[in-house]
Amino acid sequence: MVMKKIPTLIKLQEIQVAPQISLGERLRARIKGIRYSTYRPKVLEWLEKNLRKFRLLILKIDNLFVDLIKRSRERSQVWQIRSGAWREYMHLKKKEKLRVLETLDKAEVSETLEKINQEVAKDEDVAFKEKVETIANGSGTKIEEPTPLVPTSSQVTEEVPVSDEEKKYIDLIATNPKDANAYRFLGFLYLNQKNYSDARACFRRVLKFNSQDEEVKDKLNEIKGLKGKNL
Questions:
Q1: Which of 130, 158, 180, 195 is least surrounded, with the fewest CB atoms within 10 Å of its CB?
Q2: DSSP line for 128-197
Q3: Residue 2: inside a domain, yes or no?
């Protein structure tokens, strides 16, 4: 069998063995064998594809920022509206508080003035009543001060001038203390004399008996602030 294979072995010795090529040489040969004319379109296609993906990514990021800006603007507007409403509420609350305090102050002042007016009216009524009694009892010519227990140099006699018309109405009032007409005519008589204190006292008595007398109401309102004149 070996003998039969000897011719074949002799032929194999005649075949030259190809030298072995290194890996680097094979790579260089592979690169040189690449056809750039066919590879460039693929590279450009790959580049375009990735650029499109990158652009989509940028657009998504841009949309995200646009959405964030929109939400921030909406929240900012909401807070501006709330802040404005809060400031307006506080302003109105402050105004309401000031108005209430002003109302309370006015009410307190009005109450104080009303008390003063009532006290003044009471004094005027008492003084007018004493005047009527004095004139009715003393014929309206003079009023003598009561003689003190210990005589002093200050004892005086005061003349009170009384007109016939005034004396007439005072006598009617002394006879009938509820004569509203007598008080009315006497009040207008004092008003013409600018004796506002006695005029107010007469007009108050008129309204006590006849609260519907509008003319007397108007006159009394006109002279309410004129206390202390020609008492």
A1: 158
A2: HHHHHHHHHHTTTTEEEPPPPSS--TT--EEE----HHHHHHHHHHHH-TT-HHHHHHHHHHHHHTT-HH
A3: no
How far is C-alpha 164 from the chain's CA centre?
Answer: 63
Within 8 A by CB and 6+ apart from 162, the residues are 135, 140, 141, 170
Looking at residue 36, its pLDDT comes to: 58
CB distance 231 to 127 below 8 Å: yes
For residue 167, being part of any structural domain is answered with: yes
153: phi then psi, degrees, rounded to nearest 5: -75, -5
Question: What pLDDT shows up at residue 61?
Answer: 93
Domain-located, residue 60 = no
- The series of mean pLDDT values per 10 residues for the chain, 231 residues long, is 66 55 76 64 84 92 91 89 87 84 76 77 85 75 39 41 84 88 91 90 90 89 67 45
Residue 37's pLDDT is 59
How far the first Cα of the chain sits from its last, in Å, is 174
Q: Give domain status of residue 217, yes or no.
A: yes
CA distance 122 to 6: 166
Angle at the Cα of 44 (from 40 to 50), degrees rounded to 5? 145
AA letter at 137: N
What pLDDT score was predicted for residue 129? 85
The total of structural domains in the chain comes to 1
